[in-house]
Structure formats: C-alpha cells, structure tokens
Amino acid sequence: MLNLIIFGPQGAGKGTQAQLLAKEFNLEWIETGRLLREKAGDRTKLGEKIGRLQNQGVLVPDEIVAQIIEEKIKKVPKNKGIILDGYPRNIRQLESLEKILRETNRAKYKAIFVNVSKEVTLERLSGRKTCSKCGKIFSKTDLEVCDACGGKLIVREDDRPEAIEKRLEVYHKETEPMLRFYRKKGVLVEVNGEGPVEEVYRDIIKNLK
Ligand SMILES: [Zn+2]
Predict the structure, then answer these.
(1) Which end of the chain is less crowded, N or C, counting CB atoms within 10 A of the terminal residue's CB?
(2) Ligand 1 mean position to 125 CA, how many Å?
C-alpha cells in the first residue's frame, strides 16, 4: 500500500501532482485546506470553532488540525493508500503525524518535496488577481473584470510581492526541519517543480520506484 505526503511552497503545483498521483495509484487525496473548509461548514462544536477562527483569519491550532486529519485517515479503507496534501506544515505537525501514521498502520510512506526556487515562486504568484464578487482566482491575467460574473478583479493584500516574500520566508524556516527529518529517515523524494506538469509528474513516478 502506497502512502504519500506531498509538500512544497505555494505555487509549486503540488495540488495538481497530488491529484494525478491519487488517480494513478487509487489513493485517497487528503487536501487539508479543503478538509478544514468542509469541517467549518459542519454544524458541530468543532465545525463552529473552526469557522469562527477562519472568519477571524486565525490559523486553526495544530491539535485541531491533527484531530481532523486523524479522523479522516481512520475513515479511509485500510487497504487504500493516502496522499496528504497541505499537512504537515511544520515539525510539530510532522511529529503529530508520525504518531497518527503509526497508529493507523501507515508508518511506511514517502514524502515528496516539490521544490521551486524563490524567484520562480514569486514569479508564479505575483500578478494573481481575485474577483471581488465571486472570489474566483486568476493567475497572471490582463483581465480587469471576472469572466464568470463580471465582478471587478483586485490584487489581494496577500498577493502583493512583499506579502508573498514574507510568506515564503516563513515557509522556508518551517520546511527546513521537515526536510532534514524526512531525509534522515530515508523517505524523502525531492523533485524540481519548475518544469511543465507532465515532466514534474514523470520525475516523481521515476523517483518513487
Ligand atoms: Zn467573479
């Protein structure tokens, strides 16, 4: 059974790769961001708490994310592999995940790092616009209005170069210890994420074998 963790900077295209891998190997794709959004919509105490935090723009605490990830993994049929996307994001989360994976008999896994240089990430993320009306995201567009709803396109505060650069800095600081851990454990698969989607994908497959 194949269990995968995929990580990399924002804009590395890891979601796309996760989707392709999930299809190829029949894996349960566990996309943390989406999972949290779904939970936030639940009419449970936990759902309401997550919704409240997200509305305040506060990160959901590690313990809660770990709990949700664990619940989700436990629901996956035992003979079906998983691919974790968007978790873990730091060494604390990684340690919680190690425990969860052991307890769910998924201790054997590979961690795929889709590496993209800071310059390319900045290039890929800058120029991103968001529809002020429906929220649709446009990467690199000359459009001024949304092609779906006609709303005005804006550059979010988050997508300004200074903000992106700051986020990347935090990202690298958090990722380094994870890379060291997975490398030392001998489960790290590192690929260059700067080429076309198909090329990155082929590279991953080659390295998994
Ligand atoms: Zn729109």
Answers:
(1) C
(2) 19
Cα-to-centroid distance, 148 and ligand 1 (Å): 5
Catalytic residue positions, numbered: 14, 89, 128, 156, 167
Which three-class secondary structure state does DSSP give residue 58?
coil
Q: Which domains does the chain have, with CATH numbers?
A: 3-117+170-208 (3.40.50.300)
- Give me ligand 1 centre to Cα 28, in Å: 31
pTM comes to 0.85
Give burial (CB, 10 Å; 0-12/13-18/19+) of 127: middle
Report the relative pairing of strands 188-192 and 110-115 from DSSP bridges.
parallel
* Tokens 């003979």 found at: 79
Confidence category of residue 115, pLDDT binned at 50, 70, 90: very high
